[in-house]
Structures are given as C-alpha cells and as structure tokens.
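## Example pair
The file below holds two records. Each record gives the amino-acid sequence first, followed by its structure token line.
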Amino acid sequence: MNTHEPHPDQARPRGAEPGGVPPQETPPGESSLSGAGPEETHNPTKGWAKAPLTLILLLAFCVAAFFLAYALIVV
C-alpha cells in the first residue's frame, strides 16, 4: 500500500481555502436583491399618532394622581 499525502492543491476542494472563499466565488450581496419584492406604495408616517399618545399620557397622569392622593391620605 502506498500511503502518501496528495498534492496540496488537490487535497482541498476548490473554494475551501484557509481564510474562507476567494472573492470571485462569493455570492452576490443583499443589495443586488433590492428589487426582488413587490413595490411598497403605503408608507405610513413615522412617530406617534395624537390619539394614542394622548391616551397614554392621560393614563399616566391618572396613575400618578392616584398614588399622590393615596400618599396624602395614608400620611
């Protein structure tokens, strides 16, 4: 039996280099897929709407008033 090491170029399959895959064998980046999906036509505004923000602030004020009243009654 002959047990010798194969030639270093033949030992690894193509692309299996120690530092990774050579640049010419890498897949395309994500930016090349920007047009792959459907066109988005509805772009809602950013930020909070007035009604939810008002309700949250009102709820926070009621909770704060409750604890303030409770603190004044207990003391």
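Second record, same layout:
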Amino acid sequence: MVDTKGSEGTRDSFAAVLASIRPKTDIELADGLTKLIEAVKTTGKPGSLSVRFDVKLVDGGGTAVIVNDRIAMKLPEKNREGSIAYIGDGNKLQRTDPTAMPLFADEDIRSTPDYADPRTGEIKEIPNA
C-alpha cells in the first residue's frame, strides 16, 4: 500500500485502502467518472458522482466490520425540443390548426396543371390566353 506521512503518523492513501477492501468500487467509480465527463461535455450541464460507505460491526464489540458501498451518479440530460400541435376533433392532436383557413386547396398543391412543367413548375403555355 501507498503510505503518506500525516501529522498523526503514517496513513495509507484512500485509493489504496479502497482497492484492498472494495476492489471493484474504484473501477466502477473510474468508469462512472468517464461517463459523467462525456455527458457533461455533450449537454453542457453539470452532473454528479458520489460514493457512500456504510460500515457496521460484525459482532457487538469485535474488531471486524462489514463495509458496503453505494455509488450514485446523476447524469445531465439533453434538452428535448418541443413541437407545436393543435387540438382537433375528439381532443386528438394534429399538426395543422383546425381553426385556420388553408392557403391552398390540397389539389392545388399536389397536382400540376397541364400547361406547367411538372419538374420546374414553369408555365409552358396558358390555354385560352
């Protein structure tokens, strides 16, 4: 283990203790941090990663403890664009405003007159002109 000198004597680093007691937790935290950084970069919003350790005695006054960990990650979410919809008959949503008058009749938009070029819409010759 890695030792560091503190004011109260020699201490092991937290990473070394974590790796020896909960060997997969440090790997999960590193992976979680990578995911969190990617999500923060993508959304531009903050996120968080936290770990909690619960420690309890195995027996009433002994020297053994059980250490459990809980990793919680709050990834930022992307903003989703809203879309406009109108309420139609029977309270069903639709893309067109049922109270608005159409600019063109459907047949005006979908069909090209015989005297116009269908590819360009250019008028070739107007009949009876």
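Notes on the second record: The mean pLDDT is 82. Residues 25-43 form the longest helix (19 residues).
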